[in-house]
Design a protein that fits this description.
Layout: H1 4-7, H2 15-26, H3 37-49, H4 75-86, H5 93-103, H6 105-127, E1 151-152, E2 160-161, H7 169-172, H8 178-191, H9 195-198, H10 210-223
Antiparallel strand pairs: 1-2
Length: 228
């Protein structure tokens, strides 16, 4: 397991944050629901290497890209990873439909889950002046390819849990891949707030008060064109 706490010295993160990061990182190389361990690591590498297209460069048409692995990921998967990682502001329903048709809803959802898990960790490391952690070793085995019960098409681009859902949409956005969604939500609760903290308007046990945290979150969302 990558010792995140050692890489971030002399900064000391809250134990729940460190544990959530190390748990997320340790699972990157394991088989997922729809991707193998080597494929998951290749996706993370593609996400880390992604760059915005230079101004004036045409956006690749996913339909024109090969779906054959080269050598691990196909060009179409690599472009989907790039768009999700650094060009999400131009993702719309039409593009998502093509991407999901090419990858399938499970593989697309898991790719997005890998992006939203690894990007915040890499950014946190850089903000603290530390190098992002190295990737773990790939593990053998096949994906489970299990579709969770209770999922259906709804208001999202991908199917999500519908039956019996009572929580916010953001918590079920990636529920088509429950294991990765649980990892993501553990990171959210560690880096932002858990359910109990979210319900309280006054935070006295943290270095930043609630209004300060929400201002940072709102400003970051606006800069990233995330208008949730």
């Amino acid at each position: 397991m990558v010792a995140v706490r050692d890489r971030m010295a002399p900064f000391v993160l809250p134990e729940r944050t460190t544990s959530a990061i190390e748990h997320a990182w340790a699972g990157l190389g394991a088989p997922g629901t729809w991707w193998t361990g080597p494929e998951r690591l290749a996706i993370v590498e593609a996400i880390r290497a992604a760059e915005p297209l230079p101004i004036g460069t045409p956006v690749p048409d996913l339909r024109s890209l090969s779906a054959e692995p080269d050598p691990v990921l196909s060009p179409v998967v690599t472009e989907v990873a790039r768009r999700v990682a650094v060009d999400a502001g131009r993702i719309d329903a039409a593009w998502a439909d093509v991407a999901i048709e090419a990858l399938g809803p499970g593989r697309y959802t898991e790719l997005v889950a890998l992006a939203v898990t690894t990007v915040p960790i890499d950014l946190l490391c850089r903000l603290l002046g530390a190098d992002p952690p190295p990737l773990p070793a790939a593990e053998g085995g096949e994906p489970s390819r299990v579709v969770p019960p209770g999922v259906a098409d709804g208001d999202a681009f991908v199917p999500w849990v519908v039956e019996g859902w009572m929580g916010p949409n953001v918590a079920r956005a990636l529920s088509y891949v429950p294991a990765d969604n649980a990892v993501r939500m553990r990171l959210v609760q560690a880096m932002y707030a858990d359910e109990a903290q979210f319900a309280r308007l006054v935070w006295e046990e943290r270095a930043l008060c609630r209004p300060q945290v929400e201002l940072l979150a709102a400003r970051t969302s606006a800069i990233n064109e995330c208008f949730y």
